[in-house]
Amino acid sequence: MIKHGLRLLAGVLAAAPVLAGSAHAASDGLTVYNTNCSVCHQAGGAGMPGQFPVLKNRIDKIAATPEGKKYLMDVVLNGLHGPIQAGGAAYAGFMPSLKALSDDDIAAVLTYVASLGDTSPAPTITADDVKAARATPKKGPEVQAERNALNAAHPIP
Per its UniProt record, what Pfam families does this chain match (predicted)? Predict the structure, then answer.
């Protein structure tokens, strides 16, 4: 019985690096995107006309300013509800909150979608940035007002 328990413990300990590697790999932006975002925003951020906005060649431009980065983090953390204009098209969709994701995962996915544009170097978002944004949760109308203010100052593509 003790021998069996020791073998089981040895197996768990041997798997620990693999499990840790999986958790680390989850902070890869493409992996996070494919798991949580691509169902709506499609592969490579291509979007779905009339339903889900294109992210490619847009997010990098929004993330080019500190206000834009803050807005993007607020959208991912709090969701976005109601009508918006994006890339010249109207959307009346529902973006759910992804606040259950870790700060590392949110930073990784936002940095990934920002890299899909032509801005060089692509804007980056850190886990510390996300942690700071998470400290001030917002309700739907507040995120919409933030979008409107950002759009007035720096038109959102």
Answer: Cytochrom_C
